[in-house]
Amino acid sequence: MRKILGAIVAGAMLVGGLVMSETVLAAPESVCSDPDISEELKEAAGCKTEKDISNVAVTLINFVVTLVGIISVAAMVYGGVIFTTSQGDANKVKKAQYIVLYSAVGLIVSVLAFAIVMFVSNNVL
Asked: How far apart are alpha carbons 49 and 38 in whole angstroms?
């Protein structure tokens, strides 16, 4: 059972990493130095490399919140597996209920944290 849970967590982390990753392409120097191209397009092409601390902090918080959400969903699946394989054992059923309950609470907290981060980053920063 631990191997299955480990595989689920590893797969979730892999998928989360793929979803969270950004494609990094170097813009040709001619694009960055061309005065006819707007600043927005230059920034989208990767010409500007300066990052302030607020962007780094928001990216880090988004990553942590996403990771917590992935772990919460994996824990819900694990609790469901324990529940379906409990075969009427009261201790396993109670354990599964606690796992699902607390993983749902964790998922709700992570969604609320993500909403707060997005609100602050869009309206304050």
From this structure: 16
Residue 45 · residue 31 · CB < 8 Å: yes
Average per-residue pLDDT for the chain: 76
Burial class of residue 46 (count of CB atoms within 10 Å of its CB; 0-12, 13-18, 19+): middle
Q: Which residue has the higher pLDDT, 77 or 12?
A: 77
**b/e for 15-39, b at 16 or more Cβ within 10 A?**
ebeeeeeeeeeebeeeeeeeeeeee
Q: DSSP assignment, residue 74?
A: H
pLDDT, tens digit (0-9, with 9 covering 90-100), for 73-98:
899 999 999 999 999 899 999 999 99
